[in-house]
Amino acid sequence: MSLEKRTIITLISNILITVGVITLVLDFAPVAIGEISYQIRRLRQVEYSVDTTSGKKASDLFNALLNGSEVLVVDPTNKDFSVVIEKIGVNAPIIKNVSVSDKDEYFNALNYGVAHANISSTPDRGGNTYLFAHSSINFWRIGKYANIFNLLRKLENGDRVNVFYENTRYEYEVIGNEVVAGFNTNPLTRTVIEPILTLQTCDPPGTTLNRLVVTAKLIRVYK
Predict the structure, then answer these.
(1) Confidence band of 215 (pLDDT split at 50, 70, 90)
(2) What local confidence, expressed as pLDDT, does residue 176 receive?
(3) What dotted CATH number matches 78-223?
(4) Of the candidates 29, 10, 30, which has an alpha carbon nearest to the alpha carbon of residue 21?
(5) So where are the chain's domains?
(6) pTM score, two decimals?
(7) Cβ(220)–Cβ(152) under 8 Å?
(8) How far is CA 188 from CA 33, 96, 167, 195, in A?
(9) pLDDT for residue 118 is more than 90
(10) pLDDT of residue 94
């Protein structure tokens, strides 16, 4: 093999390696940033709350981190349909009636909010309200909100999740979480005897290997 050919092969190999590294960084950067932010908030004892009307707004996070021991007021993005998870800093609109089988439809929905499964219930009807925000290894296709559930794994029994729907607030308490295979549809189709909320994302974050499913039960309704 001539020197020229070896040089070209080496150049192509270096380009492919560089592209691969950049792709990995872009894929997993949101995961790393979310984890670091979460740990800093815990260290500085900064919390979010929808139950307080006095204090700094959630948008003032930087100053709160400097001062420490702050409770930040969370105003939901809207009260038509949105979700607030105080522990992990989630505050996002919900896109109603998104197909769970049409990838193009739910990728598009994740540009505008967390997706609500079209075959699931809504909070006012009881049943199983199913929300999902996929992570994806194809970073160029995911929407603005695709990674917003990356910290779902931090939720523990007793943590709460607030869903606002048609100007009513539904407060749920986490009662369990599990990792299931991607083809397992039981969390979506299961029969329930009380109003529950199911939150789903990919696991591990940034991959499509499995699904992390968090289940919460309705404990309070604020009209």
Answers:
(1) very high
(2) 95
(3) 2.40.260.10
(4) 29
(5) 78-223
(6) 0.84
(7) no
(8) 30, 15, 25, 13
(9) yes
(10) 97
